[in-house]
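Ticket opened by: R.M.
Priority: normal
Category: complex prediction / small molecule

The reporter submitted a protein together with glutathione and asked that the result be attached to this ticket for the collaborator who will pick it up next week. Submitted input follows.
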Amino acid sequence: MTTPVPTIGSGITLFTAATPNGYKISIALEELKAIGAIPSYSFVSISFQKNEQKSDWFLKINPNGRIPALVDTIEGQVPVNVWESASILLYLARVYDTNHVFHFSDPAEEQELLNWIFFVQGGVGPMQGQANHFFRYAPEKIPYAIKRYQDETHRLYSVYETRLADREYLVGPGKGKYTIADICTYGWISSYAWAGLSLDSFPNLKAWLERISARPAVVLGTSVPKSNYVKPGDAERAAKEASDWILRGMGHKI
Ligand SMILES: N[C@@H](CCC(=O)N[C@@H](CS)C(=O)NCC(=O)O)C(=O)O
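Result attached by the on-call engineer:
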């Protein structure tokens, strides 16, 4: 499978799409830009409809054929390929956030940050991803599967609800500090409605979501690239479009 190979210039190039995992990285890059930790970055919008994420050239960057992925080309060094959203966030924190604005120098606090990053990567992402699949994309509606993944995602949300009872951010002393753990989590929580979930029973999580959504870097990051899912009335078209490429990828005839 081959689609045209994009030119990768110097500096940071993000390969992404308008999805919860993609936005984690564009938000982090906008935050780093805002504090002057990186001068700029480029991005390449990957088309799932054209199956670009499975192109030969892209598989050399991310063998798993999924976004996000990032290439960091530093003069005089071998370009670094980074993939898996949490791995990318940790890379950006380690290499560019040397003042620990969005993570911690204290080992115990940094470990707590890792706990919440692993929690979203190993729990919320996979469960909510399956809730999306069975609620929006599956060719047949299977009530048991929809309920199973929605219930499990809501259960995981209740862990955040308790955590955020007396704090503003997931990790850090006092009421916490906004970090890459929040950014990693935001990608999924902000798209709760797409999976047919509700935040009605989670007021602390809802307040956290609103707090983070208001950050200028989050507003900028969530338009890299722009989503073509415009308004709720458009959900059916957007779901059908996504369902077609997902099912084609699973070998269904569409
Ligand atoms: N665990 C991965 C998940 C990446 C992932 O599933 N990306 C989706 C978009 S959110 C994707 O590229 N899907 C394309 C495909 O399934 O072919 C991460 O955190 O980066």
